[in-house]
Each structure stands twice: as C-alpha cells, then as structure tokens.
Amino acid sequence: MKKNNMKKAMLFALGFIMLVSGMNSLFAQDEKFEGTAEMTLKGKKSDNDVKYYAKNNMARVEMGENAGKETNMPLQGTIIFKNDEMFILMPSRKTYVEKPLNITNKLNELSRREDLESKISRTGQQKDILGHKTDQWIMKTNSGEIELWNTHDLGNILFFQNTGAGSYPKWFQELTAGGFFPLLVIQRDLNGNEVNRLEVKNVKKETVDNKYFEIPSDYKRTEGRQRTGGTKK
Q: Looking at the whole model, is its pTM more than 0.70?
C-alpha cells in the first residue's frame, strides 16, 4: 500500500469510528450491539459498499471489492478493530499494518480544534429509518457541518474498551448516552453541498463468529512503507 493511500486509510478509519462508534464502557447500562450491518459510503466521485461486523470490543469493516462491488475509491479491503488497535489487511500482499487508535486523545484533539462543545446539538427532529426511531444531531465544523441520525434501539455500535472514564469530551458523552447507532450520516461543506453520505441499508442483530476478527495465519506484519515493485523485509 502506498504511503498516501495508507494515510487515506487511516483518515477514513478514524472518521468512520468517530461517526459510528459509541462508548459502552462509559455507559454500562447500554446494550452492546452484536451483529452485522450493510452500508453505502457515497462521495462526490465514487461510491463504496461497506460491510460491518461487531462483537464485544471488536469490529470488522469490509470495503470495496471485498464488499462485492468494484469502486474507484483508493481504499479497498478490510480493517479489523480490537479494543484500541486497528489492523489494516492487504490481501494482495498477504500483509497487515497494526496501528494504535489512541481514541481518547484524538477525540479531545478534535474537540479542541473544532470547538465542538458549543457546536453540536440535538435538534428535536425525529424520523423512522429501517423501522427504528432516530434523533437528528447537527455538528458544526470548520469545514461545514455533519448531520447525524441516531437510534437508541440497537444499543452501542462499538469496538474499543474504556481508556479512562470521564476523559472523553462532554459532547461525545451526551451524543453516545443511552445507546448510539447512527443509521444516516451526511457531511456538507460550508456552502451546504453534500460531500459524503454514510447510510445503513440493512442491520441485523445476530451472533458473529470470532473468526471475522482474526488476522489470517499466513499474513505477515509490515510497517506499510512498501514501494511499488518491492516489499520491505
């Protein structure tokens, strides 16, 4: 995987977990989601199918050709999350990259940079999506806004453990309290134009086999700095 594609993979993964993950360990009364979800990620230039698996403190995200659809997006393949670690699988090389998420630090950094404590709110608007009642949240950012429709019906869609109760931003605790499962997320620029849309098309509570969260035994760990035509030893 080229260096710029690795950076895009990291940015996508971080954005994904911030949009579709909750803090079960902070809200112990909330049910933890176990099951699968099928989603579409639509951007200005291309679309991408996404298959999501969740169990305990683990998740698996399959994108692009692994989700059964060709795409022009630079990121295709599988990302596995376990607690506060991320594993990016590269099937063509039978290698994987392991990266720490450091989710607490990244959330607080994002909050300070965007001043989110004063820019995120629940509007009071509700609508039915896939048979679930959802609440609308609006997050203002320096580059536009994010519109998020969250349901409490499915529990928390999460995959990482608590890394320090009380250390998360207040807005994030409020957003995820009582169960957090966004069924629709829309990102717009400063002119109100849609940039990205993440939409859940199907969601099912079911038992998920642990095999989906395992690194294949024939994969080797790499730092992800290979250049075309060669592989770092």
A: yes
